[in-house]
Specification:
127 residues; mainly alpha; single chain; 83% helix
């Protein structure tokens, strides 16, 4: 009888230890997700999209006027929509409204970066 109780207590202790380990791992994973969203959403993804667009403008001499309108629309959609979609996907666990807000924030930050770097600092766009 004592051996059975000892076995039950040992099993309970193992279960409690595993539960603590699981909670610790879940907390670490949640922290990583939060950090990933806060680093990629407002900083890295908009900077990459803006850098790609400014690089393209630099390569084309500061004007995309010679391109067909569909190609311009696709490039702009890819440059702005792709980072926003990735940010929304990273924020998907926070709810639909917050994911949309993160995507809009990414686009807004990217617009500011494109205008600040491309148009003001490098002098692209109309004169």
């Amino acid at each position: 009888m004592d051996r059975d109780l000892d076995a039950v207590e040992a099993a309970e202790l193992r279960l409690e230890a595993r539960s603590r380990e699981r909670r610790t791992e879940l907390a670490r994973r949640a922290r990583r997700r939060r950090l990933r969203l806060w680093i990629l959403g407002p900083a890295v993804l908009p900077a990459l999209g803006a850098a790609g667009l400014v690089w393209l403008l630099e390569r084309e001499g500061g004007d995309l006027g010679g391109w067909p309108p569909l190609r311009i629309a696709l490039v702009l959609a890819g440059a702005f929509v792709l980072p926003a979609l990735i940010t929304a996907w990273l924020a998907r666990r926070r709810g639909v409204l917050e994911a949309i807000a993160w995507a809009l924030a990414t686009v807004c930050i990217q617009v500011v970066l494109v205008f600040a770097v491309g148009f003001l600092a490098l002098g692209y766009g109309p004169d």
